[in-house]
Amino acid sequence: MRHFVLLILLLSISTGSFSQAPKPGDIRLKFWTESDSYEDALTIPEDWKNESAVIIYQEFNYEYKNTSRAVNYNESTRRRVVLLDKSAVETYSEFSFAENFKVDKGFRSKGGQAFAGVKIIKPDGTASIIDMEDAIEVEGQGSKTFKKIAVPNLEIGDIIDYYYHIYEPFVTTYDFAFEPIISTLSGTYPILNQKLIFEIGEDFFFNFNSLNGAPEIQLSDSDKKNTKIYTLTDTNRSKMKTRRWFYSRQVQPLIKTQVIFARNSKSERLADAFLGEKGKIKSSVSEEEIKKYFAKRLIFTDDKNNYHWYLKKKNLLDAPTDKKLIEEIYYQMRFDHLVAKLEPLIFLNEGYVNVIPFQYGNFLSEQSFITQFGSFLKSRDVDFTVIAAVPRSLSNLDDVLIKDEIVLLLKVELDQPIYISYFNFHSNCNHIPYLLEGTEALEMNLTQQHQIVGVKRITLPTTKHVDNNTSTTLEVDFEEDMLTLQLDKEVNHTGYNKEDSQNTLMTHYDYIDEDYDYFNASGFVERVNVKNKIREEIRVKLAAKKIKDKKAQLEICKQTAEQEIDIPIKSYKKFDINSSGRYGDDEAFSYNENYQIEGLVKQAGPNFIMEVGKLIGGQVGLEEEEMDRQEDVFMAYPRSYRNDITINIPKGFDIQGIENLNKKIENESGGFISVANIEGQLLKISSHKFYKTNFEKAENWPNLVAFLEEAYDFTQEKILLKRQ
Amino acid sequence: MIHFLLTSLLALLKFMETGILSSFLMGFIIEKPKQTSFCMNTVRLLVIGILILSIPSWVGAQKNKRPDATTINFAKAQKAEHTKDNLLIRNSLVTYTFDFNERTKKVTVLEKNKRRYICLAPQHKTSFVNFYNQESEIKSIEVFNAKGKRVPVYPKDDYYQDSDFFYSDARVIYFNLEFPYQGSEYQVNYTKKYKDVKYFTSSFFSNYYPNLNKKIRFVVPDWLEVEFKEMNFDNANISVEKEYNESKKSTTYTFTGKKFKSENREEYAPGPSHIYPHLLVLTKSYTRHGKKVALFDSTQDLYDWYKSLVDLIDDDISIIKAKVETLTAGLDTDIEKVKAIYYWVQDNIRYIAFEDGLAGFKPEECHKVFQNKYGDCKGMANLTKQMLILAGFDARLTWIGTKRIAYDYSLPTLAADNHMICTVIIDGKKYFLDPTEKYNTFNVYAERIQGKQALIENGDGFMLELIPEMNNETNEELIVRKFKIDGDVLKGEGHHSFKGESKSKLLYSINHIKSDRLEEALDNYIKEGDKNLRVFDTKTTELNQRDQDFLIDYSFEQKNAVSSFGEEMYLDLDYYKEMEKFKFDGSRQFDYLFPYKTKLVVKTELEIPHQYQVQEMPSGLTEDHENFSFHVKFKKDGNKLIYEKEINIDEAVIRKEDLELWDSCIDKLDKVYHQQLILTKKQ
Q: Tell me, what's the ipTM?
């Protein structure tokens, strides 16, 4: 009987909980009604006649409904575009779309459906609706179908009016936070009119904010019971402009929104979002709310097992918890929770599914990392605070609305504070991610029991350009033909300058093996729980994989060096890592490389011209239109680049033109300084380029231009090797 | 194209080579955009990789034993010979048998394929792929390990998407196989059925992987007349045995060859039918119940079948009539009228390729193409034909094989062509119109069809005609730069002119740039991204005219172009340095094809400053060869220094036997490019 009741219950869930899917006709009428105020919109402003296309009207519609057990989510886009050139016609000449698809929301769904419609309006106003039955299925497996259609009779001057509506029903037990939407109001084409419409049903929380001058959203009249409709209306929006060093979210009109479903108070407590009040828009998050949110979720324990095993192993249990010990624990955690778990993934990625069982466990989330590290500190009676910060490229503290905008740090109160951030493969202890540098953040104090209680606003420290440095020592020799150069390089990256190079130039096994050695740990081959025979198989594969990776690494290093020096490399001979820079903020990522280039030296009768300036690598080349700038300058971090170049002058030649290699521009934003001199048969050149800040007001742009141009001009300098 | 949602895994199949996909389908699924903190992205990608892996699980690794020493040594030796290949086919046998389907009244073909693969790499994973369409089906797939034990495989069946086609009826059956060790072996067998022998046209000896021993066997019943054309058999050392089986009333032909290299993975190479040994299978007729029925016995049979499809076209010319009248109104000459129609179709009908059963051979009705404003080559050819007929011309559909195909219509086979154009006959002269060639000038023919035989409809008969060959002058690109020295800046004027295919290629690009970016694009085209060059006062001829050369004129200032050292000035006279470092370095095994026959002329004129003289004139270059030539010369004319360069590629191809010679010419050209002009102050 009990089974029978359960069966009935299950049936009722699976059959009765989803609302009926929309009908294609209803969807069409939603957009193309007789009362459609844009039906007759055919013209565009004179100013936009030379654009590729102009969006006369676009509408984004988000509908959140709640039935007894299911959530029904509808999302639609309608766009009416006048096509002014062949490029635009080409862009809109074919549509491809998923008609049926798997819903990735909640824990169960019967699948999603989509509806599309396309209408062509000729310049004389005659409209024809494309029969979507003509769409051809081009992919189809199970319940998923993918279709495409070629739009007929589409010509320059036509208006294309199309919509795409998706219906996603799903079941969720407690809360569900929908994907946040953060979008600038401008796009590829200018927009004459646009609307964003949110229909929010019961049990949904609505976070929304308009930023950087975007219009406010308004509550509209609604005859729908228990549903509130909010509309944002925007007009005459020019197309998006792109700039060098530009965080569009900091400058361009922007909307930010998230909808969260929470059926009851329990769900609300569990919700992974900042919740306002049901039925009202939440447009900001207070410092107190942020504190409360994390106070509930960051529970620090003083579990003595938490990494005390490691201290015991290292005989450090009684050692003071100083910077060195904290670093040890950080790198051990990075190894245990990330690097050691990477190796099985590499194997799985290689396709050895049947050889290796799933033995990698879960990765640690940022929140769990903070909790675990804080708990370790607590167990050692070390004071710390928790910092909530917002990356500069995304937003700032005052405009936070979405939980994922926040990054957590720990500040360990030693003589000099140490900042602990969520690890990545190469991150260092006492590291603040560069996008947080100098930003306003919240520092949350803890009680003696390590409960978050207080909150204050702080400014996170910044690095200096000397901290984020790339130093290159380069020795240059002429080959016998005088046209080929042999370059022997040592490169040292420090601070934030390390990150890209570490990620690009190291193979996975460069640092996995390093960590195994550092922690005296067994590799995956040894610790995987398989029969010896299979272990042997894995060992053979591992050796092959490492050979393959090393070969690929040389090619990557060659390409990277080519991009840096902006000249094709004739032959790339060597890449050796001296130090990975992974165990200390002050440790450089250092490597040596050796390669040959051709093209920097040109013959001039018996003499040779050498484009010596290019040896410092490609520099920012500002285009004419970039010289004037109205927008503030957002850069990643202060940084510097130093080159020490020694050129062995072939016997029988004198050098002319080195006076042009001495340059100096320095101002409050940065500088470029170069010095050249001849010592016997050696031409020695040193250059130093530095950006002092990560942000400049637009009015300081000329400062940047001054030294950027100086550095670029240096790359254009040549010397003459004159035969004696 | 607007993608409402991202395409799935299957889109990757477009990268497949016929037969085998060697890159694994993973890591290409893109997540929905999401705000994430810094390091989780990497982890997430790896996790996604695993999820994808779980879709087509790899077969074979667990049960496959390590090969014995002899096999491993064999694999190692083969790897030394085939350095770029990860698998090798030790033995391959394909057997074709023929049958007659009484229901459809078609001759059918059964292809039984057996291949034994050995792994040359330390390990290798690959996807085995078989294609089929409405006219064929895959009947079975079996895989056996080295000991002959059957290995289960789980093939997936899906649409095949090719970026060249908007829609194709081609489908793909694929499964994945892992070779865990160097020397690991699998036998892969599959059976494919062709429902109609006319679609079975050839059988190739080479495969995606090198093939040590290959046998192709045909069991031809007495009732079927088949001819085998041996193509590219020179140097292939292929033998043939013929054996008659009295009891089965059939003749077995067995072609045996050894040591076939892997199929070409080189870009810009001739089509497969030009370079690989293969058998062209001409099924001429069959005899049933004493009655002989022609299949493709002659070109007339091929034409008859094509015509039978053309006769099915139900054109409604009333729909296109008004447009024809508008286009030709006020035009006096026949040529003007033809051009008006031809250019209109080029400009207004988008090319979208379809391949869907019979529709792959039958042209779309003209009014549908006209109304849709899109069509494939056949649809566009038919629309052009009907518009011309309405305008009073004698216009015909015309079948043609592009240069990618090695055959002509002396061989009655569907493999002889892959394209359709329109022929218009004016005063007895034939003009060929290919509206898929955007911005093509009337009476100028694209390289891909020049010299090819065209099959022109002619009622119940047909005409064969060669498309005229054009020389490289037709496509001449001329660059003239005249300038003087002002400090370290060169100031002057530039002039570019384009003809033929150099013009149509450029016009196509220009016309597909967003109009608000056109000025910037032209600027970048001239500057090639060089910040030192400032271009201004740019003027062009009309962007959509075809009957004159396309011209670009501009003024320029080039910074950092002159280096002064003491009394001397050094400068580089060649700005674009065309073909610099364009070498092959022994990396190719096949001819290199250019898109068209090239003639490039560069003329540079420097006004020498009064107080300076030319100290040393750089040396020039003269390299005249059968298919290409390079000429560079420097000369002084009064106070002007003239630099002239001419590069001719006469046949749009560098033959493989000329690749070394080509490289040596490029070395010499590069040396010229590396020279500087020296001007010295007069004493």
A: 0.85
